[in-house]
Amino acid sequence: xxxxxxxxxIIHCTFKPQQKKILRKxxxxxxxxxxxxxxxxxxxxxxxxxxxxxxxxxxLVFTIVSILSLAIVWFQFxxxxxxxxxxxxxxxxxxxxxxxxxxxxxxxxLYTPYAYEKVSNRNVYILMPMYNEPIENVKNTFQSIxxxxxxxxxxxxxDDGSSLVDYSEIAKEYQEIFAEKGISFQFxxxxxxGKRAAQLNAYKHLEISDFHNEIILTIDSDTxxxxxxxxxxxxxxEDERVYxxxxxxxxxxxxxxxxxxxxxLLVIGHMVLIERSMNxxxxxxxxxxxxxxxxxxxxxxxxxxxxxENETFGRVRVEFSDDSFLTMAAMLLGRTVAQMTAVSYTDxxxxxxxxxxxxxxxxxxxxxxxxxxxxxxxxxxFVFFRQAFGWAMFAAMNVIxxxxxxxxxxxxxxxxxxxxxxxxxxxxxxxxxxxxxxxxLANRDKWIVxxxxxxxxxWAIFVLSPVRIWGYITHKNTGWGTRDKIEL
Length: 488
Known about the structure:
Helix content is 52%, strand content 12%. It has 17 helices and 10 strands. It has an 8-stranded mixed sheet, sandwiched between helices. A two-stranded antiparallel sheet has the order 8-9. Helix 13 (352-376) crosses helix 17 and helix 15 packs across helix 17.
């Protein structure tokens, strides 16, 4: 771990010097985040009730009791179990990882969405790249925008050189429909240049008068919004320190098969509702969800200055990881938070090959973006700490994991209870899924998804962890991958 920390300090001192000069020239100095409590404090100070986000009191108490019970069992039995099975040498790593997981759980329970009695009127501009997306999906996206309780000022849709679909007819049809609702609509065609180029092309066609107070909403071409999504997504910008807001994506095709159930529970239940909630309390959400992400317009301006359209890593051009780049630009300006009441639906892969490719892309992007965060943020900042400690712990826990697998199958004569701890943690993490504000699943169905938590542990250990390692190793494969057929 010490070697990894030393490498991270070297990255901080030597990586991306040109971008550091740009930040100094613009007078931008990343700020150290302070923890900001939510839930009870917010309700008491403002006396506001969240009509779209009601934390079930029983579930909250049950979660806290489960966390405390897990902590007691964890710290009481780790040393005896470790000693009995000659695992005492790695007990500190168990303690550290368990402590981090418990802290994340506790902090996430204090999260609450932003709420104010009065919310300023803001122009919202939607940027929507399209590439070989089925017409029906695009139509559903348009319709969900029209059904919003707060309508955007403008929608700019960019066809990124689609070869399988022609959007001209649907664009012409909805030009009139949007106009009737008072929404300006632009449809632009460009040669295939990638999602980033499409977003910036749309951005350049906007007439923005107030870059601080007007909002950019980036979406995917298959995004379908809950009716309050835009209205809820702009609320956090009442806090002048907030520069980006991550909405929540929920899996529209969760019932397809066991893979989509596992993915939904891992991505939504664990990554979004637990980890993102905790990071939001520090104003340091690392990556927004592509289908629904809000930014102050000045974030796009800074991203351009930092080389968003032509990002390179080494000598290789980076085409994916656009969401993490924009979120990082927002973090350089101020706080990046989550708003769990801004909900959209999207499809996640229901085939193993596509699922693996998606996670490879995510992990390659995460690896590359980690260098940027280590380089551009202060060593004493939460952003730097989370990135540095996360890499170190991932390396250490992988070594320990393979040691444990060897000991369990070839050394131990009985099974130590400490090895079921990941199941217990997964169960408590998965409780958050039951509180997600989605209208397409009954409570019974949410419980069915929750009961998949044992599979998420096995999937994370034996599939996603090796995929993450391979993604890091092959990080120079930075192409998005052009679709020659329509897939999710």
